[in-house]
Predict the 3D structure of the following.
Amino acid sequence: MSERQVMIVAECTISPGRLDDFKKIAQETIDAIKAGSKVLEYRWYFNSDQTKCYIVEQYADPKALIHHLEILAPHLLKILEVSKMTRFEIYGSLGRLESVEHLLNNLARVLKIEKLEWNPQNLAYWNGFGR
């Protein structure tokens, strides 16, 4: 991951009895994102009892993340009907684009909900390399 890239790790706790609904909505979301988003990596994982789903996303830069959120918004509403977002981490800098709080407040406005209660964290890049 380069210094300009941004990575997201999100965790959804799936509502009891809603796994099949969640998977159907997730597939629709994946298809929409694949067709229109500028995401570099977009991978969904389940824990062993399929009560939690982890979404790992990677973007070339913060602007690509914003573009993704615009496409994601209507699908996210459906996902939140059958699950609860229990973790939301942003790895890398959003630069001068926006703060995490501003980013999520804008997303809440688009979703027409009062506030996102995801306890977001923005983790700043320090050092490392990729191959």
